[in-house]
Amino acid sequence: MSSRFMDLMLTPSVQAAQARAYGRSQARPTTEGPQVLGPDEAAFIAGMDSFYLATVSEEGWPYVQHRGGPKGFLKVLGPAELGFADLRGNRQLLSTGNLSKDGRVCLFLMNYPLKARLKILGRAEVLEAASNPELAEALIVPGQQAVTERLFRIRVEAFDWNCPQHITPRYTEAEIREAVLPLRTRIAELEAELARFRP
Ligand SMILES: Cc1cc2nc3c(=O)[nH]c(=O)nc-3n(C[C@H](O)[C@H](O)[C@H](O)COP(=O)(O)O)c2cc1C
């Protein structure tokens, strides 16, 4: 587990839970500055077509929303910076409202076929797309039907990869279509061959 991640997560109450359960607790590491995304993280993020975004309400409730788009809609903007376009949607603005009080976010990225997941902690700011044309240009996905109203820019603080245990591989429609393409082709060939023997 990354020490930056544990520096942020290993709070006294977590340490106390460890001590109660196991008689001892992990030492909380001291780290400085944000953790920088490397090529593995960048490649993983570029392949995502969805992720979960957790924010904290001003009353302390955790809130999680699913975000989806074409692969690569979550963009690496810099060594410790991510962004994505927020589309006109349900008009509730729960994430946006939460972030106006507390910018802390957790992004939860799952790749089911690879049985891999990446957690990212960061601080998000929400910017109006109309008044930030350069960032909008970088984040708006070409061909996107819905209007981009806001832009989410996230300064990464820490990230952590989890082990693949307990992740059931799942595949998207597009992945299944690609995987069965050789079978469909073969079936079509065999059907054509069979047709030649029919009276
Ligand atoms: C017509 C429509 C299309 C939407 N398209 C997407 C989409 O492609 N990706 C996505 O993450 N959310 C999409 N949403 C959801 C909204 O953008 C939603 O407002 C946003 O996730 C904010 O949610 P929150 O208020 O829970 O933070 C769509 C909603 C509607 C009504």
UniProtKB/TrEMBL annotation:
Residues 42-134 form the Pyridoxamine 5'-phosphate oxidase N-terminal domain. Gene3D superfamilies: Electron Transport, Fmn-binding Protein, Chain A. This is Pyridoxamine 5'-phosphate oxidase.
